[in-house]
Design brief:
By secondary structure, the chain is α+β, with helices and mostly antiparallel strands. The chain contains six helices and 13 strands. The radius of gyration is 20 Å and the shape is globular.
Length: about 280
């Protein structure tokens, strides 16, 4: 909320281009908050953090992928080996593995999310949070599958991507390897947190490009599915340009909804104008 005596005004940031997962712009302009004058639109997607099944054992009767701790205490520096090189054992023997999973696609999505929860074989659920990357270029699964002609532009939703990979298991490794970036994690209790270090609130926290939407900005989101105030509390490699992700929470339902939500809309950035009055004892 603005300080007493301050004035809030709403204004959008930039024209947001529709990525391959975005739907067409609405044919009619949605209603706007009073006093605002929107002129630009953005693409909105949703994200959900879902626990992935994993095990702490290192005996691998079938191929498994590791959620690894950072090989460098500073988590900066690099570049480290690529995703394919790490999966092939480039960091083996350094005792960096936090857990193992039989689902490389779920692990890939955890890398994109940057935090999540692991359900261990004994039933325990532990949290993991972002601890750095290998500094390599990022490429999304949607970009890869559209470029290969596997999925048509505009149809590369998460359910479609999962279905295609399930139908083409022999190609999964090569598709994942096209994203050279590998995310490292650390064990952490508590709910998912964003890049500001605070817990994310389902339906209210968004991830955005900090160059367009300053971290911590309060904004009003208007799309066919959303009409609410939100706060920019996260960022990420996949969040570039005129694009924002709404955090929907944890669980299978959140992931399912997130996977099919991709819309055009308007984001009104709220800013304080004038000189705030100093606090009083009244």
């Amino acid at each position: 909320m603005p300080a007493p005596g301050a004035r809030s005004s709403a204004g959008s940031s930039r024209r947001f281009a529709c990525a391959s997962r975005c739907s067409s712009p609405p044919t009619t302009s949605p209603s706007s908050p009073r006093g605002s004058n929107p002129t630009r639109r953005f693409a909105i997607r949703s994200s959900g953090a879902r626990p992935i099944w994993s095990t702490s054992t290192r005996t691998r009767s079938i191929p498994r992928a590791a959620a690894a701790a950072s090989p460098d205490a500073s988590t900066a520096g690099g570049p480290y080996p690529s995703r394919a090189e790490i999966d092939a054992g480039a960091l083996a023997g350094r005792r960096l593995e936090l857990a193992w999973t039989d689902d490389p696609v779920a692990l890939f999505l955890l890398h994109v999310q940057g935090s999540g929860r692991l359900r261990l074989a004994d039933g325990r659920v532990v949290g993991v949070r972002y601890a750095g990357t290998n500094g390599r270029p990022y490429r999304s699964l949607a970009q890869t599958l559209v470029a290969r002609g596997a999925l048509p532009p505009g149809r590369a939703t998460l359910p479609a991507i999962r279905a295609w990979l399930a139908d083409h298991p022999a190609e999964t490794a090569s598709v994942l390897a096209e994203n050279e970036r590998y995310t490292f994690f650390r064990l952490a209790d508590g709910p998912p947190v964003g890049s500001l270090g605070v817990a994310l609130t389902p339906g209210r926290s968004i991830a955005a490009d900090a160059r367009l939407v300053p971290p911590g900005t309060v904004a009003y989101l208007r799309t066919p599915s959303f009409a609410r105030f939100v706060v920019s509390q996260d960022s990420g490699t996949a969040i570039v340009g005129a694009h924002a992700d709404v955090f929907l929470g944890a669980g299978a339902d959140a992931e399912a909804r997130a996977g099919r939500t991709s819309e055009r809309g308007t984001l009104y950035l709220l800013r304080v104008t004038g000189v705030p009055r100093p606090p009083t004892r009244e």
